[in-house]
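Tokens as discussed.
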């Protein structure tokens, strides 16, 4: 079993939260599942810039922590679908607030991103 060299501080609420949904696509995955996109390939197609491998890894982490449930039918090809658990549904108000904040500040962030790209392409 893997043992971290530096112990994680899981007494900090922010670190606990980031342990669950801190990952490049985890919040997008939770949002997609909440909107009814439940199959890994569909989730991947819905998240621009993602790779199927990373989506599958993050689905596995969300499953491990009880955010989502997995249902796989014993047919070929295997049909796997994900659903939010009650624990996972508890993240939805937070996700909604993050989305609201992002929409409110989207123009500013886009403007800053353009400046950043212009200055790093030299």
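Sequence:
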């Amino acid at each position: 079993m893997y043992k971290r060299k530096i112990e994680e501080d899981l007494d900090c609420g922010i670190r606990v939260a980031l342990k669950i949904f801190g990952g490049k696509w985890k919040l997008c995955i939770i949002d997609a599942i909440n909107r009814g996109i439940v199959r890994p390939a569909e989730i991947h197609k819905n998240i621009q810039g993602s790779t199927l491998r990373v989506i599958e890894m993050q689905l596995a982490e969300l499953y491990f922590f009880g955010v989502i449930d997995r249902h796989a039918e014993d047919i070929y090809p295997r049909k796997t679908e994900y659903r939010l658990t009650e624990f996972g549904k508890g993240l939805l108000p937070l996700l909604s607030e993050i989305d609201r904040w992002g929409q409110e500040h989207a123009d500013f962030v886009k403007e800053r991103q353009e400046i950043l790209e212009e200055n790093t392409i030299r």
